[in-house]
Fold this protein.
Amino acid sequence: MPMTAAEARAALAHDPHRPRYHFTAPHNWLNDPNGFYNADGVYQLFYQYNPNGAQWGDIHWGHATSTDLVTWTDLPIALAPTPGGPDEGGCWSGAAVVHEGVPTLLYTGVRNGDQRPCLAVSHDNWVTWEKYADNPVIATPPEGVGSQDFRDHVIWREGDDWYQLIGAGFAGIGGATLLYRSRDLRTWDYLHPLYHRPHTELEPVPTGTMWECPDFFPLGDKHVLVISVWSEDDTGYTAYMVGDYRDHRFTPDSFHVLDYGRNRFFAPQSLKDESGRRVMMGWVREDRRPAAQIRAGWSGAMSLPRVLALRPDGRLSLTPHPHLQHLRGDHFRLTDVDVTDTLPLSVAGDTLELLVEWDISDAAQVGLKFRASPDGEEETLLTYDRATGDLVLDRTRTTLDPEAHRYEQRAPLHLAEGETLKLHIFLDRSVVEIFANDYIALTARVYPTRADSVGLALVASGGAARVVSVDVWEVAGV
Ligand code: DQQ
């Protein structure tokens, strides 16, 4: 008898690296969120899932639902590859919509490496799925696009028509999003690339040779195109463009990095929540050797739901969803303290939410140590460097485990004259999500080995700085 989802979760609950309030698969491998959809207040979250192990392969669609985007209920596997079918090699990423009252999934079926859009419908309110007999619904990619560079879907409605984007690359040129139109989701006409860009254009951000997992949505009076940049066999990072969508073409006016953790935050999808907020979740990848993931019996988590809004400067603001506040437990608060060196806090833990506001004054660097052992043998250091304007996450001493990767992650953060530094940090065992001044996001993984690597301290160097306030909440597991 295979384990139930609840039994699988219980068997892994003791793992000190397994997050408690970030969504994970019950066990085994998880990657991209799929079919993220608000079905009248019931949020559907599917995900790329390998039921056979904690490594990527034999990709199915796992499934969970939520009414608050924070607590999730496991559902049975939604899609499995059909031997001999167009998805026999895997049911890769895709989207969900409701067409004429019928929940419908459009996903990438893979056979012999070739990628084709496939469709499935549910007649029992999103639980079980029946594949369309005439899959795939698009026979070949357009000219110039390789059969193995044609995957991942986002769908939206305009008038009587459905539109979808497929992630792609024009061979030898660069990443692209291909625009298709349909009346019934089963017959599609190719229109043109919504937008594409040569991989040789590197500024302000390079966008690689192929774009995975596009997302596209209106925000304020603009549209946002999100791409997961893939280049030379390396899943790189997630970028977004803000621009105008007119006559079925997209003209970006700016390009930005969506998350400075690079591919620790990847392949995100978004929806509109019950209050009309644009909410995004992405795949938080592991950062340790595959053998360690397999031994652990699980791999990958979903990010927290993030609310996206348009800032006056044309960038996105990125903030944790307000429903996360329901998880707040015991509270510690400190206000108005001068820090000249290291100030240990009397609160500690590995499952915390922190809000820290700094008035940098004349300090060269200010920041925070977390997951620190009392003797400093293991610690992770987040600092803002006033001279370079960089937020630096130093993970070089984060763990003694040789199988976990240790390196520095960095994000540029421009503070206006007199502006305070506002750090909003979520620690969830091995998952760390950092939001700075409501528009910089940096996702990371930490795998301390010592049970006492739970300390917190404020740090300042090169001059005095004042902490305006520090709030720390214990976060209740869900
Ligand atoms: N993961 C899926 C693909 C997608 C990639 C396969 C991004 O559909 O392009 O698991 O992580």
